[in-house]
Structures are given as structure tokens and as C-alpha cells.
């Protein structure tokens, strides 16, 4: 490591290290050499998507995003930042809890029937660029999919070998509200490495802290130097600035109680008039986990397969019992989604089901905004301010 140059006393390990863009290049090389399939953000199809990275050159250096309700646009940045862009359409559940899993296949040969189980043999993933809110989402899915009596073997297998490299947020999108959910923009959960990106007059660099034994081992292979005060302060200021610049916020109230107390609110009819029940919000949500089962056969009838697919509580079939669906109306389906996400999730899994990533706002085709809906329900519960009561006519 380089000598300390800014007049500080000897560095403390907790102060971390600093690496330049060359360090990011080495980081991807080290991860690949260790046998990891590195997944991180990259530009594809006019969006920043999560995909396998063969080199750090594929990171979205110089790209940002503009987000709003029902709107996502890629934009060129004036600097070279790689991670100054908020959540894209995918989350890590794409890799940990895949949208399609073939569970078994069966073949008939005359009177003989052979069944073949399909064991999931995933790569060892290194997730590069996990956002603090998405790290919380992984924690939530850990509890949902592996915390009970029946562990999901697909998720457990993928999750157990995964390395998590968090990049703290320094530029939230207009749809982000992690501050009000207590999930970001600083990293507050367990992971392997935490990075904060800085690009100022002192150059483009990353403040890096090891958070696990393997994270520390990897750090030892990178071209880093002891973190200087200016880098640490710039990094902390970037994250604090992101908290201040957060585009949206949930109402400051007990959301669980709010959901339980508003089941008859007229707002549900209002949102039902806009909701298309397309299920986009559940597909992009990093914590939604529901699946369905589909059996398919080929035209000969001699080959069959069972698939597990992501499902959505917005689908009519989702609540099908004998005789028909329990939740027929879009009002009941939207209400189920929101009250579960913000309310009964606490009873079921011990936390909110929302981490404030804003994806459901961005990718809703009609721009329905979960923070706006919660605020409208909150307003409905509050007595009118003096002087604003309607005069009975
Ligand atoms: S809230 Fe938006 S994304 Fe979700 S089901 Fe309704 S229309 Fe689709
Ligand atoms: S409900 Fe919306 S904002 Fe909350 S975690 Fe899911 S997608 Fe993100």
C-alpha cells in the first residue's frame, strides 16, 4: 500500500482502502479467476440491465438514468461514473429466484415411463453493484424462501455460494424512497465488500471496505492504498447527498397499522380505475416471490415437463379456489398487493416487504405510485385541518 500522504496518523483498517478504475478491472479478473460468474450492471437495449460481466469494461461507465412514474430513460453523464444510476428493471432475484425453472421431465416409451429430476446446478455468482436497498431485498427473500420449515432448494443453492459486493448510492432516481424505508442509501446489512464511488478533482476512484473474510481476501489481491480523508469524506458526502436528494418518501406513519385500518377506503376504487392488473409491479419487485406450476407436453404426448414460473397476485387465477377466484376485482387485487407488501408482510416475515427501490413506480405502464397511494390512504385517515371541512350543502 502507498504511504499515507495527507498528514494523517496511521490508517485504521475500518477506514478502508481506495482503488482507481484499474482496481475495478482487477476486481472482475480476480472474481473470475476464483471461479465466480460475475454479474453486474451493463448497458443493453437502452437500459442498464444486470448481466454476466466478462470484464469491467462492460460496466456502464458514463451512463445514468432518468426515472419517473411509468418512465425510464438512459442518459449520457458528463463524468465517468459507473454506478451513479438507480435501480434498473431487474433485481438479483432474477438470478437467485429465477423466473423459469424446469423441475422435472418425463418420457413415455411404450408402457415404460421414465422421470428425470432436474437438479439446479447454478454457477457461483459474484454480484457486483448490489444497491443497499436490494441487499435488504435479498435478506427478505432469504427469510421468505429459506427461513421456514420448507427451504426452496433452488434459491438456497444459488444463494449459499453467492458473493455480494455492494455499491452505495450517490445518485438516487426520482422514484427512489429507500431513506424513508430505512434501507439505504448507505449499506446497513451483511455483505462481502462495500464500495462507494467518487469522481471529483482528485480523480475517479472507489472507497472499498472488506466486510467478510472472503471480502478481505479479495481486497488483498487488489491494487489499493489506504483510504485518505478526502476520499472518505467525499464518499460519505455523496451518500448523505443521495439521502437528501431522495425523489420520493413514504408517509411518516406506521404503515402496517395504516394498511390494516384502511381496508374500506374509497382510494381502492380510485386506484382500481387506473390499474391494468398487468402484474409488472410484482415482476420487477425484488421481494415478490410467488410462483405457479405449469405442466406441458409435446405434440406426441410422449414427453412432458413440469415448470415453476413466477406468478403474480394480480393474475385472476392466483386466487382460484374451487368455484372461481377469491379476488375477482382489480380493487381487491391491488389492495391485496399493497396491504401485503406494507402491512401483513410484517406479520408473516417480520419486516416490511418493500425496500423503497421504486421499480414498481417506474415500470407501471400507467404510472401508479406506491408512495402516492400510501399517502392518499394516510390522508383519508386524518381528520381535516380546521377551516378545510366541507360545508354541508
Ligand atoms: S399497479 Fe401498475 S404495474 Fe401493477 S398491476 Fe396495476 S397497472 Fe400493472
Ligand atoms: S414494492 Fe415497489 S418500491 Fe417496494 S420493493 Fe417492491 S418494487 Fe421496490
What this model shows, in words?
The protein is α+β, with helices and mostly antiparallel strands. It has two domains: 13-244, no CATH class; 255-379, no CATH class. Helices cover 31% and strands 24% of the residues. Strands 3-2-8-9-10-11-1-12 form an eight-stranded mixed beta sheet, sandwiched between helices. A four-stranded antiparallel beta sheet has the order 7-6-14-13, with no helix packed on it. The chain has a two-stranded antiparallel sheet with strand order 4-5. A hairpin with a 2-residue loop joins strand 4 (63-68) and strand 5. The longest helix is centred in the C-terminal third of the chain and has 20 residues, at 330-349. It starts with 16 loop residues before the first strand and ends in a 12-residue tail after the last helix. Residues 1-9 have low confidence and may be disordered. One iron/sulfur cluster is lined by residues 284-287, 341, 354-360, 370.
How is this fold's topology laid out?
Layout: E1 17-20, H1 21-33, E2 37-44, E3 47-52, E4 63-68, E5 71-76, H2 93-96, E6 100-109, E7 112-117, E8 125-130, H3 132-146, H4 153-160, E9 163-167, H5 178-181, E10 193-200, E11 203-210, H6 213-219, E12 225-226, H7 229-244, H8 255-260, H9 267-272, H10 280-284, E13 291-297, E14 303-310, E15 320-321, E16 324-325, H11 330-349, H12 359-362, H13 370-381
Parallel strand pairs: 2-8, 8-9, 9-10
Antiparallel strand pairs: 1-11, 1-12, 2-3, 4-5, 6-7, 6-14, 10-11, 13-14, 15-16
Amino acid at each position: 500500500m502507498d504511504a499515507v500522504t495527507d498528514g494523517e496518523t496511521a490508517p485504521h483498517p475500518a477506514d478502508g482502502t481506495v482503488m482507481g478504475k484499474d482496481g475495478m478491472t482487477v476486481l472482475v479478473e480476480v472474481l473470475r479467476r476464483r471461479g465466480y460468474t460475475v454479474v453486474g450492471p451493463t448497458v443493453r437495449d437502452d437500459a442498464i440491465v444486470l448481466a454476466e460481466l466478462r470484464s469491467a469494461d462492460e460496466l456502464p461507465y458514463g451512463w445514468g438514468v432518468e426515472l419517473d412514474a411509468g418512465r425510464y430513460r438512459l442518459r449520457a453523464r458528463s463524468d465517468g461514473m459507473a454506478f451513479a444510476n438507480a435501480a434498473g428493471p431487474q433485481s438479483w432475484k432474477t438470478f437467485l429466484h429465477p423466473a423459469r425453472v424446469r423441475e422435472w421431465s418425463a418420457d413415455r416409451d411404450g408402457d415404460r415411463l421414465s422421470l428425470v429430476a432436474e437438479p439446479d446446478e447454478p454457477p457461483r455468482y459474484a454480484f457486483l453493484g448490489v444497491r443497499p436497498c436490494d441487499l435488504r431485498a435479498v435478506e427478505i427473500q432469504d427469510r421468505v424462501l429459506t427461513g421456514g420449515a420448507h427451504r426452496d432448494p433452488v434459491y438456497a443453492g444459488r444463494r449459499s455460494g453467492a458473493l455480494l459486493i455492494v455499491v452505495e448510492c450517490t445518485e438516487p432516481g426520482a422514484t427512489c424512497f429507500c431513506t424513508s424505508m430505512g434501507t439505504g442509501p448507505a449499506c446497513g446489512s451483511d455483505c462481502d465488500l462495500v464500495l462507494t464511488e467518487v469522481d471529483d478533482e482528485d480523480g475517479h476512484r472507489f472507497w472499498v471496505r472488506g466486510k467478510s473474510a472472503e471480502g478481505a481476501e479479495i481486497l488483498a489481491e487488489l491494487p489499493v492504498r489506504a483510504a485518505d480523508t478526502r476520499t472518505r469524506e467525499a464518499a460519505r458526502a455523496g451518500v448523505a447527498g443521495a439521502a437528501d436528494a431522495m425523489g420520493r418518501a413514504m408517509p411518516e406513519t406506521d404503515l402496517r397499522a395504516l394498511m390494516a385500518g384502511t381496508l374500506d377506503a374509497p382510494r381502492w376504487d380510485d386506484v382500481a380505475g387506473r390499474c391494468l392488473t398487468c402484474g409488472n409491479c410484482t415482476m420487477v419487485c425484488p421481494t415478490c416471490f410467488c410462483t405457479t406450476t405449469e405442466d406441458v407436453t409435446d405434440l406426441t404426448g410422449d414427453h412432458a415437463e413440469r415448470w415453476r414460473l413466477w406468478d403474480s397476485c394480480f393474475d385472476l387465477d392466483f386466487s382460484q379456489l374451487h368455484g372461481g377466484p377469491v379476488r375477482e376485482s382489480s380493487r381487491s387485487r391491488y389492495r391485496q398487493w399493497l396491504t401485503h407488501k406494507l402491512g401483513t408482510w410484517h406479520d408473516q416475515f417480520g419486516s416490511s416487504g418493500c425496500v423503497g427501490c421504486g421499480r414498481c413506480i417506474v415500470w407501471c405502464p400507467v404510472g401508479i405510485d406506491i408512495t402516492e397511494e400510501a399517502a392518499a390512504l394516510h390522508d383519508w385517515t386524518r381528520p381535516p385541518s380546521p377551516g378545510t371541512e366541507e360545508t354541508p350543502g
